[in-house]
Amino acid sequence: MIGAHPDDVEWGAGGIALLLSRKQKTFAMVDLTDGEMGSRGTPEERALEAEHAAMFAGAAARESLHLPDCGLVDSPENRRLVASVIRRYQPRIVLAPYWEDRHPDHAAAGAMVRNSALFGTLRKFDDGNPPHKPEAFLYFLLHNFEKPSLVVDITSVYERKLELLRMHDSQFSKTAEGFGLVPQGMNDYLYGLESRDRFFGSLIGVHHGEALVADRPLRVPGIESLL
């Protein structure tokens, strides 16, 4: 699970992380930046919050690549960095922000992950980890809306997802007005997030859902595996 900032994975796929943990599936979280440019919280506070959130979610590991916040760029160098991480962890599925988002870092993170796939499989890529091709790259929605390829029912863990987000106290403990900030979008961040997750859940007839977009068709062994 890859995010641009220390709370992106929890925001877009925190319910999925909790479901994976419940099923004893191993996963890691990778933050591309330390969120040092955020109006709320210091890098040190955010790093501690991210560590506590990863433990609560059940992640096997969490790390930051320490790339510049508000300065992510989909460059060949950054694609190689992402590919190296994927080759090291050898995941079956990679989750990342959707590559079209009003926040430039979210968009760049999605593009970096999407375009890292080639470097992940190259044998001549100068990397100490073996080539690896995940079975799927899936992209979670943060600000922008896109018709989902699939929606995961997270109703059973939704209260825990809210607990998980509240661990990022510097980001979600108050409304924008409470922080003395001009809001970018919804003033009450958790209310806006829950409204979004309720909407996506409604698309599949459940209370809460997290939406994922695939950039190519997904292979399934048989129609029964969809049930």
Task: Provide a concise account of the structure shown.
This protein is α/β, with parallel strands linked by helices and 227 residues long. It is built from nine helices and seven strands, in the order βαβαβαβααββααααβ. It has one domain: LmbE-like (Rossmann fold), CATH 3.40.50.10320.
* Fraction of residues in H or I helices: 40-55%
Largest sheet, strands/sense/barrel = 4 strands, mixed
Number of structural units classed as domains: 1
Order of helices and strands: EHEHEHEHHEEHHHHE
> Low-confidence segments, ≥5 residues, pLDDT <50?
none
Mean pLDDT: 91
What is the correct CATH architecture? 3-Layer(aba) Sandwich
Secondary structure category: alpha/beta
Rg on CA atoms, Å: 17 Å
Number of strands: 7
Give the strand line-up of the largest sheet. Answer: 4-5-7-6
CATH-level-4 superfamily name: LmbE-like
Q: Which shape, going by the Cα principal axes?
A: globular
Compute the number of helices: 9
End-to-end distance, in Å?
24 Å
List the helices and strands and how they pair.
Elements: E1 2-3, H1 8-22, E2 28-33, H2 43-57, E3 61-67, H3 76-89, E4 93-97, H4 104-114, H5 117-121, E5 136-140, E6 150-153, H6 158-166, H7 169-172, H8 176-179, H9 189-203, E7 209-214
Parallel strand pairs: 1-2, 2-3, 4-5
Antiparallel strand pairs: 5-7, 6-7
Helix pairs in contact: 1-6
List keywords for this structure.
Rossmann fold; four-stranded mixed beta sheet; 9 helices; 7 strands; 15% strand
Summarize the structure in words:
The protein is an alpha/beta fold. It has one domain: Rossmann fold. It is built from nine helices and seven strands, in the order E-H-E-H-E-H-E-H-H-E-E-H-H-H-H-E. It has a four-stranded mixed beta sheet with strand order 4-5-7-6, sandwiched between helices. Helix 1 links the parallel strand 1 and strand 2. Helix 1 packs across helix 6. The chain is globular, with a radius of gyration of 17 Å. The model has no long low-confidence stretch (mean pLDDT 91).
